[in-house]
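Quick start: read one record
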Amino acid sequence: MRIIPVLDLKDGLVVRGIAGRRHEYQPVVSRLTTSCRPVDVARAFRDHFGLTELYLADLDAIAGARPALPIYAAVHSLGFRLWVDAGVRDAVQAAELAVAGVANIILGLETVGGPGMLRQVCSDLGRERVIFSLDLKDGAPLGGPAWQGRDAWSIAGEAVAAGVRRLLVLDLARVGGGGGTGTEELCTRLAAAYPDIELAAGGGVNGIADLERLAQCGVRAVLVASALHDGRLRPEDLKRLPGHGRHS
C-alpha cells in the first residue's frame, strides 16, 4: 500500500478540506509546517514521512478556472510525482496537463463528460497515466447528465470498459471528518471483480486502523491529509504497512 498525501489547492495556497464544502475551506494548519505554500507543504510531507508522490486537487480549476500549471511545475521540480485533479472536462484539457508534465491525470466523475471521453483520453495518453476518480457524496455518484441513473458500481464498470486501469474511490462527504472512508464494501467488491485494476481510496482516514482495513479490502493506495497534519498518523505507523507506506 502507498500513502499519497493530499494538497488541496485554492487561491495558490494549501487549504484544509472539510466534507466537500469548498467555499468553507481555510488555509491548512499543520504540525508539519507553519507554511501554506504548496512547495513548503510538499517538502514537509517528504521530510517527515519520506513520501514523494502527491495528490493535488486544484479546486479553482475544478470550479472552472485555468489550471495552476506554474504551481504544479514548482512542486514537480522538487522531485515529487503528482496526481493532479484540475477539473478536466474534455480531452483537450487532459492533453494540456500531459504536455505540462503531469504524470498522473485525474479524470473526475464530477467533471468528466462521460464514458466516451474516458475512452478517448485513455487512448490518447495511455491507460497508465489516467486515474478515474469515482466521486461520491454520502455514497451517491456526483456525475453529470451523461452518468445519470447509474449507481457507483455500474459507473465503475463503465469506466473499466472504457479502458481505465487505475480507479480512485473518493467520498467527498467524508473528507476531513476522520470517520473513515465509508467505502470499504464497494472497494472490496471492486478489488474482487477487477483484480488487475490499481485501486485507490480516500476521504476521512483517521489513523492506522483505517489504512489496515483498506489494505484488507484490496486498496493499493490511500489519499491522506488531515491525519498527517494533525499527527494521528506518524512515520512509525506507516512503516507497519506493506511496503512501509513509501513511494519514490
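The chain is about 35% helix and 25% strand.
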